Amino acid sequence: MNRKTLVIQSHRSPLPYSWLNVCLESVKNWSEKNHYDYIFLGDEFFKLMTTELLEKTNRQKVIATDLARLKWMQKFLAEGYESVVWCDADFLVFCPDQFILPGTENLPEGYALGREVWVQKNQQQTGKLKAYKKVHNAFLLFRQGNHFLDFYCAHAERLLQNTTGPMPPQFIGPKLLTALHNTIQCPVVEFAGMLSPVVIQAINQGGGPAVDAMTARSSSPLYGANLCTSMAERGELNNNDMEQAIGRLLDNGIPGFK
After folding, report:
1. Distance (Å, rounded) from C-alpha 202 to C-alpha 208?
2. How far apart are CA 66 and CA 169, in angstroms?
3. Are 137 and 180 within 8 A, CB to CB?
4. By three-state DSSP, how is residue 8 classified?
5. CB contact at 8 A, 237 and 202
6. pTM, full prediction
7. Sequence-separated (6 or more) residues with CB below 8 Å from residue 24
8. Alpha carbon of residue 163 to chain centroid
């Protein structure tokens, strides 16, 4: 068996939206195309976490998920994989031929995060948009010998253990990663992005100011992106929006990127 690269995904069953199947298949097909091993974790996903932290995050599963993915990546690296990749269940690889993991020579640190350029309406200026450039954990890459995974996992776990008050959903995920990134400049896979609701709506219209705002702040075209299920759960996007956007992305990618 090829033990070089493993791709991991997970989600509760049954899937809440049918379009998630398309996202999962896109990652699985990309993995097979590149001869990577692939695993989908179901109910066993949280078994590497302590009972204490599971109880503490019982009503905030997204926080538990942010820690559990790190535990599984540590486990599979310890078992001998050279590289382990995590993709959220709502991560869509829409340009698989271009979605190429960086080689060791281009990633001497041995790890990389995903890129988030989040576009939303400007609350201070009606009709205007604002773009925030951050990092995300919907895509993660860790290789043998990297110095970051154990550090990140240990401090994420410590924060959960020591926090007694309410925790924001992105507490040990994008918020912690962005804070670290702002200090130490973590390596980033620029083409593994994230699409906000206004960008998804613009894609469905063939482009527009929201897509332009994202491309202007992006360092690379996107070949895969997280589609933010949480926004669909809040009603900002409906199933038709998501299905239409996925179809357009698979057919043509993101308008405006060269």
Report:
1. 6
2. 10
3. no
4. strand
5. no
6. 0.95
7. 9, 11, 40, 89
8. 24
